[in-house]
Inverse folding.
């Protein structure tokens, strides 16, 4: 057997094993973006893979119980564990199932008098992954079956991974003995991703799709879709559809299809936010902006602050002047004129001013 034939055979084994386990091959560690929101959860996942690969007599974490709101990546991470275990050894017996599927199979087994087949299916695996475990609270008989399945696997030193939208202590109407089992290993929450992680997720998604989207639109999506990875990817798909229909859309068009309320965001902008954003974008402390110094590099940044306060927030001339430590309203008029002229002549400067506007209002 040559090397190519062996590789093809190994690939076929892996694909068959993934299909049998009911895993989605797209969910891997490679495309799982790690951030502050899920770093612990991902480290636990890697440890689980290592324990199974090395056939450790004592599992580091068993069971693993992931919880978090819808769309934060629980299913991706759990299936990544299963896919990685099978990539390393396609002979492993893995089962991925939602609690609803588990219930339906149990009912069918009772109806067809195949209880033992059902029990063997889930009690003889190397790794059992159950999603949406919180729904077991509505099914007392399923809780009983799950308890015995859990005990059988645990005593055989097999790995169990569970996921829920809430921690075990908040799942109502489950028996104390089952809750105790859920809490007996590692309970790890997965939070919604922060801005940097959301941006990385969008870029990873683009890479997988083989498409590009202007950074300005990725920034808009990442800043306004905060709670769910699924919503992030849905928003990206909307923008991609818009670009396919007619070239590069405007910022306002993209904001509209994402249902971003730009007007209300403008109303929430404050002078303090303007000062903070301009200070950060231009790399000059607020203390210097408000100082009496007339150095050209300081003056132009001060002018930008006045320009945005006056033209975007429509703050009165006298108030705008006071906010940057000035007394004369004519200073504001001059600042606006200087900034407008400089923006026409200097594209890099214009882009910085535009970045300030985006960070303040969008």
């Amino acid at each position: 057997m040559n090397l190519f034939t062996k590789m093809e055979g190994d690939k076929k084994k892996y694909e068959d094993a993934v299909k049998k386990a009911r895993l989605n091959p797209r969910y891997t560690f490679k495309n799982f973006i790690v951030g502050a929101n899920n770093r612990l959860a991902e480290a636990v996942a890697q440890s689980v893979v290592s324990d199974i690969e090395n056939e450790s007599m004592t599992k580091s974490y068993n069971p693993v119980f992931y919880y978090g709101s819808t769309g934060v990546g629980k299913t991706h991470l759990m299936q990544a564990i299963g896919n990685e275990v099978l990539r390393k050894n396609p002979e492993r017996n893995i089962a991925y199932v939602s609690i609803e599927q588990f219930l339906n199979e149990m009912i069918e087994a009772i109806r067809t008098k195949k209880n033992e087949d059902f029990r063997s299916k889930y009690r003889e695996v190397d790794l059992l992954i159950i999603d949406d475990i919180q729904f077991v609270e509505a099914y007392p008989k399923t809780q009983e079956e799950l308890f015995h399945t859990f005990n059988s696997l645990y005593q055989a030193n097999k790995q169990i991974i569970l996921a829920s939208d809430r921690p075990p202590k908040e799942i109502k109407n489950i028996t104390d003995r089952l809750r105790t089992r859920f809490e007996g290993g590692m309970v790890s929450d997965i939070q919604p991703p922060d801005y940097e992680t959301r941006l990385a997720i969008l870029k990873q998604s683009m890479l997988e799709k083989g498409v590009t989207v202007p950074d300005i639109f990725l920034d808009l999506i990442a800043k306004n879709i905060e709670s769910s990875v699924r919503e992030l990817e849905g928003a990206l798909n909307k923008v991609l559809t818009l670009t396919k229909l007619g070239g590069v859309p405007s910022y306002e068009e993209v904001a509209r299809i994402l249902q971003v309320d730009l007007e209300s965001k403008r109303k929430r902008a404050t002078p303090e936010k303007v000062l903070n954003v301009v200070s950060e974008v231009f790399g000059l402390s607020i203390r210097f902006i408000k100082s009496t110094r007339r150095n050209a590099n300081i003056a132009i940044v001060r002018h930008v602050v006045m320009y945005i306060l006056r033209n975007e927030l429509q703050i009165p001339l006298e108030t705008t002047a006071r906010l940057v430590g000035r007394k004369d309203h004519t200073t504001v008029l001059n600042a606006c004129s200087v900034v407008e002229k400089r923006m026409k002549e200097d594209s890099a400067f214009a882009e910085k001013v535009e970045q300030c506007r985006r960070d303040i209002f969008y």
Summary: The domain at 195-260 is CATH 1.10.8.60 (Helicase, Ruva Protein; domain 3). The chain has a mean pLDDT of 89. The longest strand covers residues 159-164.
